[in-house]
Amino acid sequence: MTQPEWYHPDRENLTWEVFGEASRHLSQEIVDSGWFPELIVGVARGGLIPAGAIGYAIGVKAMGAINVEFYTDIGETLPEPLVLSPQLDMDSLAGKRVLVVDDVADSGKTLDLVVNLLKETAAEVRSAVIYTKPTTIFEPDFSWKKTDQWINFAWSALPVITADGSYQEGA
């Protein structure tokens, strides 16, 4: 199998093919738990693609997003994660079982912030990620794989395309 141009042998590389397997496995883990969400909230941006895949796999159409900024570049973060606009309609969570989905629980600060924020309104909140790192302060309810490596995600490994046809690193 030919590796994508962004593949790096010293990193965890989540190709689109492996993502398909990972999201189905994670979805099966959620179903097997016997707990079923009424609504899925993806943490933008990294959690949006996994949230959509899980929603399709388990048949949940009610989807939402919460915008959180924490990473500013490879290995660089803000002091604490920040919830950004547009804001999630918290009233729509009232009395519901909500699954929060993100790509990775690295420090765990983003998941901790989001899950605790949603618990203020939702009846029950659980979390799912593709990867969990040993450094996390927040253990997600569902996780596909543990790793201590930097992760190249298929959807964010290449540089941003600009209007003039050039590429912009680190977005």
Automatic annotation (TrEMBL):
Example GO molecular function: glycosyltransferase activity
Keyword Glycosyltransferase annotated: yes
Keyword Cell membrane appears in the UniProt entry: no
Provenance organism: Corynebacterium phoceense
Residues annotated as domain Phosphoribosyltransferase: 19-156
One Pfam family, short name: Pribosyltran
Keyword list, A-Z: Glycosyltransferase, Transferase
Source organism, top-level taxon: Bacteria
Protein known as: Phosphoribosyltransferase
Taxonomic classification: Bacteria, Bacillati, Actinomycetota, Actinomycetes, Mycobacteriales
